[in-house]
Amino acid sequence: MALIKDRELSEDSWVHIEDGVPVPSDGGAIVSLERWQAERDALSGRNAPIGIRLDSDTPAENLVADIDRLDLIAVPFSQFKDGRGYSTARLLRERYGFTGELRAVGNILRDQLAFLERCGFDSFEYAGGTDATEALRAFDEIEVVYQTATDRRQSAAATRNHPSRAFSNGTSG
Amino acid sequence: MYIYDEIDQTMVDQRVNQFRDQVRRRIAGELSEDEFKPLRLMNGVYLQLHAYMLRVAIPYGTLSAEQLRKLAWIARKYDRGYGHFTTRQNLQYNWPKLEELPDLLAELASVQMHALQTSGNCIRNVTADQFAGVAADEVIDPRIHAEIIRQWSTLHPEFTFLPRKFKIAVTGAETDRAAVKVHDIGLIAKRDVAGELGFEVIVGGGLGRTPMVGPTIRDFLPERHLLSYLEAVLRVYNQLGRRDNMYKARVKILVHETGAEKFTEMVEREWEQIRDTAVDLPAGERERIAAFFNPPLYDKAEDAAETLTRQVAGDADFAHWVETNVAPHKADGYAIANISLKPIGGVPGDASAEQMDAVAALAERFSFSEIRVTHEQNLVLPHVRQDELYAVWQTLKSYDLHTPNLGLVSDMIACPGMDYCALANARSIPLAQEISERFADLDRQYDIGELKLKISGCINACGHHHVGHIGILGVDRKGEEYYQITLGGSGAEDASLGDIVGPAFPYDKVVNAIETLVDAYLGVRADNERFLDTYRRLGADPFKEALYGVN
């Protein structure tokens, strides 16, 4: 597994902590939503970054009150074909204003990366069969986008209406 | 019709390169077949019984002559000299080789075509009324919004991994030729009392193993909000649609299980949050797209009707064809010419490369270079001068494209069935051919009148059997092909689902059964009553009695 963050291969400074396992006092820790809800004060009193795992059958709405206290939200994709996390990500970013790290975890494949990024993910636990460095090319394979999404890339329609503006080059926002 | 600009062209070109690399990785063994599957599906590539199949998108069924020629050329070079037009107005090639697919897609891209989203659990190629722009009863040309939807749905980042496939159809006319009520979303363009343009929005119709006529969830959606509203529907579906059982994953099940009213509330609540964001197109872009669908510059064609009357009087075969296959056009002196791809004994929807070239040439000469594909698997020349119909017909005749059977019993829909499809339980094509042969006598077909017969080789209902006046469904019974017959379905504005008439028939008894049903109808119909109307008036009893000898 390799970590891609902001379109680069990156060292992972976070650890996933299973329920029942003690949370280390330093370093980024990712815990389950249930654990966060049960131990909210203790976890946010740690002098270290905290993240939670938001399963795709849990509405993003459930996190509204906690959004500002979280440094990272991890959205698992247990299967390639389960696309609920794409909506979850857009809602977290666009509606609930989450600005921390939004991480796609699970079986993340090369050919999902561009879609995930457009929906607001900025980090990816990459499990794809191909080389992770090569996989970075996936972000730029198709430069044209027809929709406005979380990444704020300029849509084809917007470009046509403001022809003087150059195509923006798609970084997440 | 819509013409790509540099932006659209860049997209399809880059998509070809992306797919070329995916195929390269598959052939190099970097991707397993399992990993490759969702990627190829997103580009219309299926693995069928004998070979890969490629489904080419024909957005809302509109083709230029140049595009149709290219499809013919591809059929010769990469297939076995023919293609198959589908109920989603697309074209399927049955025999392409995997390693040649990238080149094939590059050929398509060279004429502004692609195979994007013709399969997979995404928003599929959008369909529309084949008489768009030429129907007299039309509020607006539905292709304008079909194109808007095509662009919006193309590689939509949020809706590419939906619970299941998602099909949208648009009509701008009162007469529903696009089967909008049996789509995941059906849109009917209309104007409100103030004359403002908008859409009736129907969600949750569909066929397959749980057929449903979709409920209207909004009577009038102002046109400028179309995309934000669609996005709201799709977001609700993406989050809440069932993913535990692929047979319950279509939006119709969500609408049904949630209740149309509650589902509507969820959509409206979501829409309130996004209706005034940048999801909807700027007015300038809507106008830019609309301008591509302005009508062509028609001739005055003053004496055209008179000439046609004379030609009809002088040639009985031509008169038959005009009566059956030609529809009224909104411009004076013009007509809509339907080209049947259902010759007696033929494979419904198949066209040879020679036929495609011939139709392309006719379109260039007589129809402003435009062709339409219908969801009933026929072709249309949408703008033919009435005094040129005779010349068109004569050419069609030399390519066996002149069968005057539109809407008649031999103009049936049939899925590919077990001859090609990996899902099928039974054959569809040979059955369609035998029924067609049985009713080969055209005078008899005229006498029977409008009769929509639709055949599916399995419960997935690609042949739309649920909405056939007579529907035939192939099922497997202990390794033997059996066929269930339904009566009384309709996919038009009076949409309804057919009822199973009784026990299924083995393959060799089906044609007789169909003939028995037709004879029963002829015996009890009132004047000018269609098969469907007789069934609706009298119910199943007379048909059951004829088939099974019991009431």
Short description:
The complex is a heterodimer of chains A (173) and B (551). Chain A has 173 residues and is α/β, with parallel strands linked by helices.
How does this structure look, described?
The complex is a heterodimer of chains A (about 170) and B (about 550). With about 170 residues, chain A is α/β, with parallel strands linked by helices. Helix content of chain A is about 25%, strand content about 20%. Chain A has 6 helices and 8 strands. Chain A has helices at about 35-40, 40-45, 85-95, 115-120, 130-135, 155-160, and strands spanning about 1-5, 10, 15, 30, 50-55, 70-75, 100-110, 125. In chain A, helix 3 (about 85-95) links the parallel strand 6 (about 70-75) and strand 7 (about 100-110). The longest helix of chain A is centred in the middle third of the chain and has 12 residues, at about 85-95. The radius of gyration of chain A is 17 Å and the shape is globular. Chain B is α+β, with helices and mostly antiparallel strands and about 550 residues long. Helices cover about 40% and strands about 15% of the residues of chain B. Chain B starts with 5 loop residues before the first helix and ends with a helix. The interface of A and B includes residues 84 and 90 of A.
Defining key terms:
A: 173 residues, alpha/beta, eight-stranded mixed beta sheet, 6 helices, disordered C terminus, B: alpha+beta, five-stranded antiparallel beta sheet, 21 strands
